[in-house]
Each structure stands twice: as C-alpha cells, then as structure tokens.
Amino acid sequence: MPVHPPMAEILAIGNELLLGEVADTNAAWLCRFLTGLGGKVQRAVLLPDEVEAIAAELQGALRRGSDLVFTTGGLGPTADDRTLAAVAMATGRPLEEHPEALRMVAARYRELAAAGFVAEPDLTPPRRKMALLPQGAIPLANPMGAAPGVLLPLEQTLLVCLPGVPDEMKAIVQGSLAPHLQARLGRAGFVELRLLTDCGDESRLAPLLKEVSQAFPHVYIKSRARAFGPRVRIQIYLSAAAPTTEEAGTLVQEAGRHLEGRLAEAGISAERLLAG
C-alpha cells in the first residue's frame, strides 16, 4: 500500500446525467465507500456518451497518477454505450472478445430466457458487444445484470469500469471487485447505517454522538442537519470499514444499538433507514 491515502477519481458517464433526466447517485455512494476504506476521492465528473470526451478525462486521470479510477455507465449492448471504446483509446489497449466475459454474458442470457424475461438466449451481436474488453482487462461478475464489470490494471492505476445501474454497480463493488480493492486498499468491507431522529436540535445530539464516537473509535458517526424548525428531523449517519463486510457490519450494528440506547435515555426516538 502507498504511504499516502490511495487517490481515486470517478467518471460518471451518460447523456441522461447531463440532461438532468437521471440523478447520479453512484458517485456519492462510491465516495462514501472509498472514504470508508481509507481512500481519498480527489475528483468526480459527469461526462457525455462521447468516446473522445471520456478518453480525454481518462488520460488526465492517468497523468495525475490516480491510484484508482472508476467509471460508471456505458457498458451495455447499445451503440451509445461507449465507455470501453474510450478506455481502449485512452490506454492504447484494443478491444477484443474476452472468453470469460463472453461466458458470463451467455450464462446470464440463458438465465433470463429460462425465466421468460427475454425471448431467446442467443448471443446476438449487441450481446457479444458486452464481452469486448480492452486487452489485458479482467471481467468482473455482475450478479444483477448482463454486462460484466471491467478491471484493467495499468502501470500505476487500477481502472474499474462499472455499470450505471446502481444495484448492479454496488453488487460488483461489494462482490467480485472486493478482493482487488482489498489488495490495493488493505480493507474491503464497508457498511453504513442511518438513523432518523425526532430531534431538531443538533446541539442536543452533539454530546451523545461524541460519547458514542469515543466508545467506538472505528465507526464514523456524523449528524446531518439541514435546517431549523418544529418539523425538522435530524439524520445520523454511521459507517465503518473492516477487512470483511461482516466485521464492518458488526462494528456499525454495535455502535448503532449503543447510540439508540443513549438517544432513548435522552428522550429522543430514532428509526433506522435503509442504507443508500
């Protein structure tokens, strides 16, 4: 591991993001995830589905010497899914059909056809397109979708290309990508918990959060107040990183239970929210 925090950049790709049709939640999630693992995100950008624009941003990230570069979006079967073509242009690694990636795509379409979600499982040209990877790339299993993720180790930078669908992106990061991140970052488990309180006064929460933070130093705890008012309910965010997701979950759950107890003693109710 480098002595400095591993530096990361995130490229969120898709015309729909720049048109405002879809909100980019992937970058925010990746920022939290990487920060929790000890990384530091130094840049995050939105880009159109244009090969030249994506390639230029990738080349900039490589010149800056980023340890990790993530792209989200543009891995699908349609003509406007151009992320990997841009990676090929930026790195000089031509696209070639990857046998393991093709196997993943074929298996996925057999499952979809058996379930009645697609008419037939044939490997049509658009489907085979998802198995065209830059030379030297490693396909990452995607348990939620059809397009594999892509891992491309470069001289200094680990380049990771992920689908734009949030559930697919998260499943790959927490599944098939996890061992590679652990090798680079040293830890690969990250879990978060959110509590929504009936308290509108952050100063009332401050001493309780300080106490729990001191009791659980490996758990990041932060209240998030946006306004004052009689109907304001402050959210509390807890997260932890550990060698495995299970260990991180144990840390967060223990701290969460302790915090809920202290809030109850103070007459403050809290409900658990689903992690984003």
Outline the structure in words.
By secondary structure, this protein is an alpha/beta fold. The protein folds into 2 domains: 7-186, MoaB/Mog-like domain (Molybdenum Cofactor Biosythetic Enzyme, Chain A, 3-Layer(aba) Sandwich), CATH 3.40.980; 190-267, Alpha-Beta Plaits (2-Layer Sandwich), CATH 3.30.70. It is 40% helix and 24% strand. The chain contains 10 helices and 12 strands. The chain has a 6-stranded mixed sheet with strand order 2-1-3-8-7-6, sandwiched between helices. It has a 4-stranded antiparallel sheet with strand order 10-11-9-12. Helix 3 (51-63) crosses helix 4 and helix 9 (202-215) crosses helix 10 (245-265). The relative contact order is 0.12. The mean pLDDT is 91.
- Please indicate the percent range of residues in DSSP E strands (runs of 2 or more): 15-25%
CATH architecture heading of the largest domain: 3-Layer(aba) Sandwich
Main CATH class of the largest domain: Alpha Beta
Number of domains: 2
Q: CATH topology of the largest domain, anyone?
A: Molybdenum Cofactor Biosythetic Enzyme, Chain A
Most strands sheet: 6 strands, mixed
Spatial sequence of strands, sheet with the most strands: 2-1-3-8-7-6
Termini, distance in Å? Answer: 29 Å
| E-strand count | 12
**What's the pLDDT, averaged over the residues?**
91
What is the H-and-E element order? EHHEHEHEHHEEEEHHEHEEHE
Question: Fraction of residues in helices?
Answer: 25-40%
Per the principal axes of the C-alpha atoms, what is the gross shape?
A: elongated
- Count of discrete alpha- or pi-helical segments spanning 4 or more residues: 10
